[in-house]
């Protein structure tokens, strides 16, 4: 196994993008529980996200969701973020909250609605240009609830045509990232249900199209790390939406439900060259904190990713490959498990302190008084964008 000192350079490269929507009130379709101090504007969401970066050094960018984070001047919003020590990151399109999209967006059989969805994507690309963002992330709620409701093939064909129109608008340094999800809100057939469908569309589009893997978007029991390996092998893993789940798309804190799965995923990321600032693979969170406080929820999340990344980096890949080659089943497995069971929290605390960060970011943030301050300052905080 590698030593902690061996992995600190790699750890220093870690960057995890935060979703603006994690800071707003959110809930299930049964209830949204409001919390004091919740942001009322995109600026306040960015200010909260900046706190996570200030205390952890792990979260230098914030993803926006349009139109939830609609403002008049995006360059000004980017400057606001910069003043707070962060940058704006991925622009997430939203074609799922408009009555027009009841039967689909980029797949819609009605040309007017399909063009409206394409125009929204183009607007998102313009926002990216204003904010200096690299990635347009597309997740579609498109699908059908009943067999026969829609022509599955026709929907794929329209999707391909729509995506090509969106792709054509990308600048040279911009990327399209297509996220998949196996069900919900459509319950019979989802139009981008799996990595293979996303991959097929990306390959047809061109070299600036990549797959986004949301860890909560698979059937129970799916071997997600295998998908990671395959997409890295194919050069099409663009980004992660990290979260954890017990049942379906639960959007719980990453690493909370199954830390071992997170470790296995991160090991494959490291193994496959998907780790680090030049890898082209963006780490993002996609979570909602329905009952726990939001900024601490995000602090816990990025620390969970950091801890599991450290454990994955501890694996001596050469040693492991040698054990695998020798057919040493138990030895190889033990090499992985030894790294997984290594408690890195003490080393990480010491390392953080040595870099001018709080050894215990959660404790220092809670003691900072920021939560009391925003509770007093912000009255009438709104929900993240859905679940009212
Ligand atoms: C869909 C999803 C997608 C959306 C986000 C709010 O379930 O994961 O990434 O943009 O949730
Ligand atoms: Mn997602
Ligand atoms: Mn999701």
Write up what this structure looks like.
The protein is an alpha/beta fold and 388 residues long. The protein has a single domain, classed as Divalent-metal-dependent TIM barrel enzymes (TIM Barrel, Alpha-Beta Barrel). The protein has 14 helices and 10 strands. An 8-stranded parallel barrel has the order 1-2-3-4-6-8-9-10, surrounded by 6 helices. Strands 5-7 form a two-stranded antiparallel ribbon. Strand 1, helix 2 and strand 2 (61-65) form a beta-alpha-beta unit. Helix 7 (224-233) runs parallel beside helix 8. The radius of gyration is 21 Å and the shape is globular. The protein binds 6-deoxy-beta-L-fructofuranose (LRH) and manganese (II) ion (2 copies). One manganese (II) ion is lined by residues 181, 214, 216-217, 249, 286. The site of 6-deoxy-beta-L-fructofuranose (LRH) has 9 residues, from loops. One of its GO terms (biological process) is L-lyxose metabolic process. It holds the Pfam family AP_endonuc_2.
Portion of residues in beta strands equals: 5-15%
- What are the low-pLDDT stretches, counting only 5+ consecutive residues below 50? none
Structural domain tally? 1
How much is the radius of gyration in Å?
21 Å
**CATH fold field value:** TIM Barrel
CATH class: Alpha Beta
| H/E series | HEHEHEHEEHEEHEHEHEHHHHHH
Distinct small molecules bound, one entry per kind: 6-deoxy-beta-L-fructofuranose, manganese (II) ion
N-end to C-end Cα span: 49 Å
Total of DSSP H or I helical runs spanning 4+ residues:
14
CATH-wise, what's the superfamily? Divalent-metal-dependent TIM barrel enzymes
Mean pLDDT: 97
Helix % is 40-55%
How many runs of DSSP E, i.e. beta strands?
A: 10
Strand order in space, largest sheet? 1-2-3-4-6-8-9-10
Sheet having the most strands: 8 strands, parallel, barrel
Q: Using the alpha-carbon principal axes, give the shape.
A: globular
CATH architecture: Alpha-Beta Barrel
SS-based class:
alpha/beta
């Amino acid at each position: 196994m590698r030593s902690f000192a061996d992995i600190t350079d790699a750890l220093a490269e870690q960057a995890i993008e935060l979703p603006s929507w994690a800071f707003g009130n959110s809930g299930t379709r049964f209830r949204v529980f409001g919390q004091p101090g919740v942001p009322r504007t995109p600026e306040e969401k960015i200010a909260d996200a900046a706190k996570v970066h200030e205390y952890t050094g792990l979260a230098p960018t914030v993803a926006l969701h349009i139109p939830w984070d609609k403002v008049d001047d995006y360059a000004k919003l980017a400057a606001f973020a910069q003043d707070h020590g962060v940058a704006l990151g991925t622009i997430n399109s939203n074609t799922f909250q408009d009555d027009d999209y009841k039967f689909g967006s980029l797949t819609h059989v009605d040309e007017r609605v399909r063009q409206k969805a394409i125009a929204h994507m183009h607007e998102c690309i313009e926002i990216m240009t204003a904010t200096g963002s690299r990635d347009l992330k597309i997740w579609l709620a498109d699908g059908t609830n009943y067999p026969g409701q829609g022509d599955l093939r026709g929907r794929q064909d329209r999707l391909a045509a729509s995506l090509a129109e969106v792709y054509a608008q990308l600048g040279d340094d911009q990327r399209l990232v297509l996220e998949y999800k196996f069900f919900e809100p459509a319950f019979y057939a989802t139009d981008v249900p799996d990595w293979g469908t996303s991959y097929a569309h990306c390959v047809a589009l061109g070299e600036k199209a990549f797959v986004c893997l949301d860890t909560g978007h698979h059937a129970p029991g799916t071997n997600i790390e295998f998908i990671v390996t395959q997409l890295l092998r194919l050069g099409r893993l663009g980004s992660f939406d990290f979260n954890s789940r017990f049942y379906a798309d639960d959007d719980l804190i990453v690493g909370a439900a199954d830390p071992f799965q997170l470790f296995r995923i991160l090991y494959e990321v490291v193994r496959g060259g998907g780790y680090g600032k030049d890898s082209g693979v963006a780490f993002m969170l996609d979570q909602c904190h329905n009952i726990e406080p939001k900024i601490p929820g995000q602090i816990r999340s990025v620390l969970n990713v950091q801890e599991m990344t450290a454990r994955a980096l501890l694996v001596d890949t050469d040693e492991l490959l040698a054990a695998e080659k020798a057919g040493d089943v138990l030895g190889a497995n033990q090499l992985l498990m030894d790294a997984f069971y290594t408690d890195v929290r003490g080393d990480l605390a010491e390392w953080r302190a040595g870099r001018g960060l709080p050894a215990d970011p959660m404790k220092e943030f809670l003691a900072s008084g920021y939560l009391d301050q925003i509770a007093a300052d912000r009255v009438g905080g709104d929900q993240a964008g859905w679940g009212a």
